[in-house]
Amino acid sequence: MDKEIFRRHGHELVDWIADYFENVESFPVMSRVKPGEIRSRIPSVPPESPEAMDRIFEDFKTVILPGITHWQHPNWHAYFPANNSPESVLGELLTAGLGVQGMVWQTSPAAAELEDAVLEWMRRLLGLPEGLAGVIQDTASTATLCALLSARERATDFQSNERGLKKPLIVYASEEAHSSVEKGVKIAGFGRENLRLIPSGPDFAMLPGQLEEAILRDKAAGLEPCCAVATLGTTSSGAVDPLPEIGPIARRHGLWLHVDAAYAGSAALLPEKRWILDGAEHIDSLVFNPHKWLLTNFDCSLYFVKDPGSLVRTFEIHPEYLKTGADPYVKNYRDWGIQLGRRFRALKLWFVVRSYGAEGLRAFVREHIRLAQLFKGWVAADPRFEVMAPAHFGLVCFRLNDGRGEAELAALNKALMDRLNATGRAYFTHTVLHGKFTLRMVIGQRTTRERHVRAAWALIQETAAGLEVKPSA
Amino acid sequence: MDKEIFRRHGHELVDWIADYFENVESFPVMSRVKPGEIRSRIPSVPPESPEAMDRIFEDFKTVILPGITHWQHPNWHAYFPANNSPESVLGELLTAGLGVQGMVWQTSPAAAELEDAVLEWMRRLLGLPEGLAGVIQDTASTATLCALLSARERATDFQSNERGLKKPLIVYASEEAHSSVEKGVKIAGFGRENLRLIPSGPDFAMLPGQLEEAILRDKAAGLEPCCAVATLGTTSSGAVDPLPEIGPIARRHGLWLHVDAAYAGSAALLPEKRWILDGAEHIDSLVFNPHKWLLTNFDCSLYFVKDPGSLVRTFEIHPEYLKTGADPYVKNYRDWGIQLGRRFRALKLWFVVRSYGAEGLRAFVREHIRLAQLFKGWVAADPRFEVMAPAHFGLVCFRLNDGRGEAELAALNKALMDRLNATGRAYFTHTVLHGKFTLRMVIGQRTTRERHVRAAWALIQETAAGLEVKPSA
Predict the structure, then answer these.
(1) What dihedral do alpha carbons B365, B366, B368, B370 form, nearest 10°?
(2) Of A192, A299, A340, the CB nearest to B161
């Protein structure tokens, strides 16, 4: 593709994205295609001869687009957000154009040093303790795995790397912790039977007393407690495990304390939400995803560690072909995680933070929390509905409840969710909280305004009206 | 940023990238900044107020660009290539704009089904056995870790996930295998002492007889052989471990056979190089990186498995909040690897394969191999130099050798490399082959033409002339 053709198509795609940002509301949020429908429209063999970009882009619009679920739709209320922003897209575009692979400092000093600088910016914005060192990972799953591996190595004096894990080490997390903890426990060779899921209270936050009891029970049984994972903003309900109590317990028993703030870390930008990090002086590591709620397109997950030495010692490798003269003087991020190869992700985050400024980022997050409180109030005021959990952030858990039994309520609320999603006007997902089927209303897309939240609530009320909900008891 | 401003900056960045593709030769290949130089030019605190994109982009050009090492320079001869292409950049741009996170089918059916379709295209293009199922990972490090974990679980009837790894399982790889094997062995809890590095022959390929002896030795000692990793195109020299002999050995002893074709997989597109996959009927898994030599910008690593069931069983998690009605009917790629979140990477690969067509891709790879042969001939004809390894692909290993001792030769060749890199006109890295310090000439960037290879050779000759090399004995 020659230069002028690239320019032409590049401009065309930029314009398409500009229009898409504007008209994304016109698409059904959740794709309506059936399993196999897209696949059946793609030839089973690759083309032998080159095809023109006009034709490929046409196929993108006619074949691929109907199979897209629109994460950037302002009525995206499912899972957590993975919002982006024009600024972040521009950063990602430059990253792709440069085609830098930042595995070691020498392969692009600016990639390493901008990452170092921007992570320090983020540490300050979140009010994390001084001295925490940061690295960009792809996802929180990877970052949490890094934490578990560092904990494993520290607990075995770095001998598990050498000899394999020879004894059971115990990991603790709330029953409401993300599935990536269980996945990491399996990958790192702890074994799922050595993961203790600590009960949560009525607010779905981990009960610290139960944590300490579990640790003591394991110690009494001759087992070795190794790592505790606290979650700030659980996936199901946005619950906040109490660091001020969990921290001292972890410290007292010599556990690595990892904090999963993947979603709610963004809220720590706000003075009024900074309390979620009370107790942060106790943490060994923390993960926070700007690719969820902070306008930075996926993937961009920040991992902070108190003792980077133990992280590097867990992952370092020294093949001859990766040695450089700069090694004694620089950070080689290849030793800060699972992967060797690294995309230049710091660039888009730098674009976002500078474009919005700290005040812009705070205003953005604060507005979503305001809208969630508004929505929560509407739910609480409608006798057919109930609010299912505290709503600290941009997530409100709710359901219809007319007093029928739990199984019937689950079916009723699942029917509500399926009907809502079938309209294409909004997209919701569910969870189960202490046995109760619950809908999740997540507010976090860049273009979500009060009118979208009002429209979503009107849609929910109207859809519920078609479901023969009895007046509440 | 409003629509018109995004359009303006988007066009500006596209134009900048178009120019960059054209004038990348004007930059020193390896950045010349000193450690800390870039960092010192970035404020230590983030801006409180928004900054204009004009200013940010200006800083990109003045602060960041000098710290970039130019992977897309036609005289990039270091490591392996990580080439990109205008087509791939366009695909990545759309991926960023859509902001899709394809963790489960429902969160974008097109992302899942296009991935499935394009991986089948790639399987056909490489001539891999029918029935192999594919998934896109970020890097070969991750894919190899997936293979090691699947091997671990299969060998323990999926009980390591549940109970931890209770007994030593042994992994085999060539002494020339990539460092990601050692890293994966540590992460997955095997322990480095349970990794056997099998000697390589004069061509740096694994000696299959030595592999079988090691397996028998371990069995006799009561240990359990679990996994063998064969490399097609080793990092140091591009050596090809012989699958036709390794395959039956792995099968005979019940080992999981993983193939690392991260770099040289691209060569399997060519009928004349298809021999590297002879014996592929024995493999359990294979990794191949289009982000190295196949015009697809980083990251895009393809992982193929014979039995996807064992992969899924290794990684599957079923939290309530991820369940969807489509689950029984679709591939949920979240269970095909380490991470939960997934970028829509198939789009750029689809753009590349369609834009170039199979014939275009083959012509591209074939030309680099021709250039490498040309270079090898020049080296062989100059009595000051020697070729250090067979050159099957786009990599030629060479060094100055005037008969002095090995330590002195290492210093001499390191001096040659440092002087070459300091010119900024080309970038080379080194390795050590059977104890001998060796330079690597890698030809694989999109815009590398014969004139660039000729210029690199002239530069090498001229630089060597300044090094007081004695006439060869």
Answers:
(1) 170
(2) A192
Q: How far apart are CA A124 and CA A140, in angstroms?
A: 20
Around Cβ A55, how many Cβ atoms within 10 Å? Answer: 11
Best residue in B8, B76, B88, B187 for a mutation probing chain A (most A CBs within 10 Å)? B187
**Beta bridge partners of residue B119, listed in sequence order:** none
Q: Show the tokens assigned to B450.
A: 């014969």
- Chain A residues with CB under 8 Å of B318 CB are 179
For residue A328, the tally of other CB atoms under 10 A from its CB is 7
Q: How confident is the model at residue A394 (pLDDT cuts 50, 70, 90)?
A: very high
Nearest residue of chain B to residue A96 (CA atoms): B89
A-chain CB neighbours of B158 within 8 Å are: none
Binary contact (B145, A338; C-beta < 8 A):
yes
Q: What is the DSSP string of B36-93?
A: TTTGGGS-SS--SS---HHHHHHHIIIIIGGG---TTSTTEESSS-----HHHHHHHH
Q: pTM of the predicted model, to two decimals? A: 0.97
Q: Which residues of B touch A79 (CB under 8 A)?
A: 107, 321
The set of residues, in sequence order, having a beta carbon less than 8 Å from that of A54 and lying 6+ positions away, is none
- Cβ of A66 and B110 within 8 Å? yes
B261 neighbors B287 (Cβ within 8 angstroms): yes
Find chain B residues with C-beta within 8 A of A5's C-beta.
86
Contact B321 A236 (CB under 8 A): yes
Please state which of the four CATH numbers 3.40.50.300, 6.10.140.1580, 3.90.1150.170, 3.10.20.30 is assigned to the domain occupying A17-84+358-473. 3.90.1150.170
Q: Is the pLDDT of residue B472 over 90?
A: no
| Residue of A60, A329, A338 with shortest CB distance to B141 | A338
Between CA A303 and CA A309, with CA A304 as vertex, the angle to 5 degrees is 110
**Distance between alpha carbon B131 and the CA centroid of its chain, in Å?**
24
What residues of chain A lie within 8 A of the CB of B141, using their CB?
A: 338-341
Residue B470 pLDDT > 80, yes or no? Answer: no
Residue whose entry in the numeric block shows the structure tokens 């075995």: A156
CATH numeric code, A100-343: 3.40.640.10
B468 pLDDT tier (thresholds 50, 70, 90): confident
β-strand B301-305 against B285-288: which pairing, if any? antiparallel
Is a pLDDT exceeding 70 seen at residue B473?
A: no
Among B214, B9, B25, which residue's Cα sits nearest to residue A94?
B9
pLDDT reading at B469 higher than 80: no
Sign, CA torsion B433/B439/B443/B444:
positive
Tokens of A466: 């078609």
Interface test mutation site (partner A, options B136, B315, B339, max chain A beta carbons within 10 A): B339
pLDDT tens per residue across span A252-306: 999 999 999 999 999 999 999 999 999 999 999 999 999 999 999 999 999 999 9
pLDDT at position B471, please?
A: 63
Q: Where are the domains of chain B?
A: 1-30+69-84+357-473, 100-343
- B445 neighbors B81 (Cβ within 8 angstroms): yes
Query: Are the beta carbons of A376 and A395 closer than 8 angstroms?
Result: no
Whether residue B431 contacts residue B70, with contact meaning beta carbons closer than 8 Å, is answered with: no
Structure tokens at A240: 């906040």
Instruction: Please report the pLDDT score of residue A470 as a whole number.
Output: 74
Helix (H, G, I), strand (E, B) or coil at A222: coil
**Gap between the Cα atoms of A46 and A181, Å rounded:** 39
Q: Is residue B220 scored above 70 in pLDDT?
A: yes
* CATH code for the domain defined by B1-30+69-84+357-473: 3.90.1150.170
Mean pLDDT of chain B: 97
Q: Do B84 and A69 touch (CB under 8 A)?
A: no
Q: Which of B16, B164, B236 is closest, CB to CB, to A165?
A: B164
